[in-house]
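User: quick one, sequence for these tokens?
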């Protein structure tokens, strides 16, 4: 006689075969990033009229001349304004179709 325990016979699984299961629709994966990041948005708004809403409630309107990692430069009716990004609450496209005309730098 053997000391091995007896194995019970395996029972067929209760789940139906793969050919009998209904196919589930594949859901596409969400994009890795939603919307625009800051630099892409600023790139699209370059040389266009924008409104910068400051954290203290002041709104600056002007043409977006350029931007760096820390600043945004606007051409306003009062001249060029360099705004620190840390002081901005948000930025949005302006209402008018074109920014204020750039003045001749030789003036």
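Assistant:
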């Amino acid at each position: 006689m053997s000391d091995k325990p007896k194995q019970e016979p395996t029972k067929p699984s209760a789940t139906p075969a793969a050919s009998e299961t209904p196919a589930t629709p594949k859901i596409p994966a969400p994009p890795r990033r939603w919307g625009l990041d800051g630099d892409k948005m600023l790139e699209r708004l370059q040389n266009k009229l924008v409104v910068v809403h400051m954290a203290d409630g002041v709104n600056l309107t002007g043409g977006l001349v350029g931007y760096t990692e820390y600043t945004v430069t606007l051409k306003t009716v009062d001249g060029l304004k360099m705004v620190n990004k840390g002081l901005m609450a948000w930025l949005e496209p302006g209402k008018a179709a074109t920014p204020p005309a750039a003045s001749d730098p030789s003036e």
